[in-house]
Amino acid sequence: MLAYLIRRLFAAAVMLVVIVMVVFSIFFLVPKWAGVDIASSFVGKQADPAAVEAVRVKLGLGDPIYTQVWHFFKGIFVGRTYAGGGDVTQCAAPCFGYSFRNEQAVWPVLTDRLPVTLGLALGAAILWLILGVAAGVLSALKRGSLWDRGAMLVALSGVSLPIYFTGMIASAVFVFGLHWIKADYVPLADSFTGWFGAMILPWITLAFLYAAMYARITRATMMEILGEDYIRTARAKGLKEQVVISKHAMRSTMTPILTMLGMDLGALIGGAILTETTFSLPGLGQAVLNAIKTQDLPIILGVTLITSIAVLIANLLVDILYAVIDPRVRLS
Questions:
Q1: CATH 1.10.3720.10 intervals, the chain
Q2: How far apart are CA 182 and CA 193, in angstroms?
Q3: Cis link prior to 256 (omega < 30° from 0)?
Q4: Which residue spans within the chain are E strands per DSSP?
Q5: What crossing angle do the helices spanning 297-325 and 250-269 adopt, rounded to 10°?
Q6: Whole-angstrom Cα distance, residue 122 to residue 284?
């Protein structure tokens, strides 16, 4: 187990280096090849030419590409100093870039909005795992029944309906119609009940989409596993059906579920743009949407990097959970 964990941590570290290089290339190298003035993207198209040149010097855009990559990568761990035109700007570690439009480092913006997105993603994940997996297992056990058909119909609706549609309908009914829930977001530090009340609808709306997908995957996987030889052997030994399902079938069923969870949860931590926009949540999704509108490249770059790292960490945790669920993984 320890050797497996060390291998996975080493692979994650290597992948982190690759992610930083790829993200840097997307935002700095590819636009340069396309003839785009990167400095203008940092300060705006209407900026003074002197300001654009100052940013170009500060970012070192005239340096060789390997030097730019090194400065960018080093800034994440030890911080970075942007100097040019007689002006010096400090960006403390971890430096994910500096927005010269807003005159602020990217990292504080990310950390200010990350708790909102993290709370949204984790709360919705708990709901869609419980509801989706439970509905999928019951549908597989009661194949062809009224429950199976009804659950899969609801799942199909959840997959088909976009979040902004279900979110607006939910708000119209429960916020503006019945007045059961308040729409204004309240930070967790200010009031737990206010925060919880404001997050209920976003959680349910986001979980409705993912629970539908997880229910369909769980049903298909469970039905396939229930036909395996070792399940028939367990039943032939006289084990109770509850033991066969919970101890044998569910262990194999959870493997693809965990795989999906690692990808979905990691991606959502980078920002659930539609959900956050629909419910006016000040998270990373709303931040990157505003950055796209104003062409604030450093914010977009920072959120992209955070999303990539979140997916990497989530998949690392999933790989570790594989070894917990299935001991045979330790030997691979």
A1: 113-297
A2: 11
A3: no
A4: 80-84, 87-91, 98-99, 104-105
A5: 170
A6: 14
Cα 110 to Cα 302: distance, rounded to the nearest angstrom: 8
From the list 133, 139, 107, the residue with the least C-alpha distance to 287 is 107
In single-letter form, the type of residue at position 287 comes to A
Query: Other CB atoms closer than 10 Å to residue 97's CB: what's the count?
Result: 26
CA distance linking residue 265 with residue 315, whole number of Å: 9
Mean pLDDT of the chain: 84
Rounded CA-CA distance 265/260 in Å is 8
What is the structure's pLDDT at 56? 83
> Phi and psi dihedrals of 90, rounded to 5?
-95, 135
Q: Which CATH number fits domain 113-297: 3.40.1620.10, 1.10.3720.10, 1.10.4160.10, 1.10.10.10?
A: 1.10.3720.10
58: nearest Cα among 85, 37, 31: 85
Query: Which residues does residue 83 pair with via DSSP β-bridges, in sequence order?
Result: 88
CA distances from 197 to 170, 177, 185 (A): 14, 16, 9
Which two structure tokens, joined as six digits, stand for 156?
């199909």
In this predicted model, what pLDDT tens digit does every residue of 137-154 receive, in sequence order? 999 888 888 888 888 888
Distance (Å, whole) CA 46 – CA 54: 15
